[in-house]
Amino acid sequence: MTAYISKSSLPFIGIVLVNLNEYEHTARCLQSLASITYPNVKIIVVDNGSADDSGARLQNEFSAAVHLRNQTNEGFTGGNNVGITYALQHGCAHVLLLNNDTIVTPSFLEPLVERLESDMTIGAVSGKIYYYPPAIGNREKIIWYAGSYQKWHMAFNHYGDSEEDTGQYDVAREVAYACGCLMLMRGEVIEKIGGLSDEYFIYWEEADWCQRARDIGYSSWYEPKTIIYHNFRSAIRGKETPFYLYLHFRNFLFYASRHFHGINRLRFCLFFPLHIFRRLFISIKVSNTNAIKAMFNGIVDYFKGYRGKQGLKERRLLR
Description:
Helix content is 37%, strand content 21%. It is built from 9 helices and 12 strands.
């Protein structure tokens, strides 16, 4: 990768955060963004139908940002799409999706932009994401994401998850998908293929977007010079929420039906049932009957043709 491009030619970046009843997380993220060194940004906060006063508080306290509002919860996809559309309509060259429960480092954005600008066939870039130390017993440099790969059962996983960073993931590389927690999307690719697919609501949507970009010749990359923190505590395997498991399985099936062809479809048909039985065994082992129910409801509702919000209220997973 070449040396950093001059500040005078740095592209204008729209940074999109979605808030849903999470004032503390979003405020902390916005506070960290106030110290970034990249000069050409527009910060866009989308309040996704919050039932509390968090949207109004954030608008009051962070008036330099653009504040948009959805009347109802439109999911990670719908919330971000509002911000993506605004950014592109108001002069942003590229759009950065950033989880509202992240804390950025001051120079996090420059390497992402440099990587994206280094090759016109790169459609999306993500960086190295650590767990936020206070969320995991104050352990330092514990990796949450250092790139992504496809597992034996055809789903994806993060490189380095829960490992201490000792430099083992310090080489930039092409990856299966850029993580939606921190994803710099090339503006011209969004213009060509659209934003996130609302058929997912949340989970699998960034993998879908990156695959749609790959289908027209754009790759996804991991850039380790960028470091941020994710204020997130992983659920114990088998103890994931019914909301997550319902959408994970429903959306995985939808992703597979859209993107797996030929040998990949055959592999999916062979290994996905084994994945179901494996996850079933894990949930039984920890007596998580709600997880078992959610998994099967997600599979059933995929075959019913449910997409987006469909099924979530009926299954009492969304208010």
